[in-house]
């Protein structure tokens, strides 16, 4: 994993703004689509910590319901997909509408080597 994975995610759809891998609150890898404004560093840090918390909380139920594929948040301006990554990290992928939800998950699953549909 790394920048090549982040770049591959951004290349999946023209409306994907970035892909960032975080672990324990630190950015490990990232790729931001050229021309996309980057939020304030303090806001970004909070977003990354929340993303990891969302994934880890959801993964607490894996033994009951099976492996967590992703967590998604929906806001008026964009959606964010958060995928668990090995080593207790998270891959954060914000995308603005419109996009095909099922098509995106199919392509994301192919990149991650698992079925997300």
Description of the structure:
- By secondary structure, the protein is of the alpha+beta class.
- It has one domain: Dynein light chain 2a, cytoplasmic (Beta-Lactamase, 2-Layer Sandwich), CATH 3.30.450.30.
- It is built from four helices and five strands.
- It has helices spanning 3-10, 41-59, 62-65, 101-112; strands at residues 18-23, 26-32, 71-74, 79-85, 89-95.
- The mean pLDDT is 92.
Question: What is the gyration radius calculated from CA atoms?
Answer: 13 Å
- What is the architecture at the second tier of CATH? 2-Layer Sandwich
Whole-number total of structural domains = 1
Distance between the termini: 21 Å
* Structural class category: alpha+beta
Q: How are the strands ordered across the major sheet?
A: 2-1-5-4-3
CATH class assignment: Alpha Beta
Percent range for helical residues? Answer: 25-40%
| CATH homologous superfamily annotation | Dynein light chain 2a, cytoplasmic
CATH topology: Beta-Lactamase
Strand fraction: 25-35%
Q: Give the averaged pLDDT, no decimals.
A: 92
Q: Looking at the structure, what is the overall shape?
A: globular
Low-confidence stretches: none
Element order: H for helix, E for strand: HEEHHEEEH
What does the main sheet amount to?
5 strands, antiparallel
Count every helix, treating DSSP H or I runs of 4 or more residues as helices: 4
Let me know the number of strands. 5
């Amino acid at each position: 994993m790394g920048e090549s994975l982040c770049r591959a995610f951004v290349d999946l759809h023209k409306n994907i703004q970035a892909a960032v891998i975080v672990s324990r609150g630190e950015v490990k890898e990232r790729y931001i689509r050229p021309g996309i404004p980057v939020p304030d560093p303090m806001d970004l840090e909070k977003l990354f910590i929340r993303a990891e918390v969302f994934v880890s909380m959801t993964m607490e139920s894996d033994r009951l319901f099976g492996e967590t594929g992703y967590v998604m948040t929906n806001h008026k301006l964009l959606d964010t997909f958060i995928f668990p990554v090995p080593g207790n990290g998270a891959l954060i992928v914000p995308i603005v509408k419109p996009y095909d939800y099922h098509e995106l998950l199919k392509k994301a699953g192919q990149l991650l080597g698992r079925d997300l549909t």
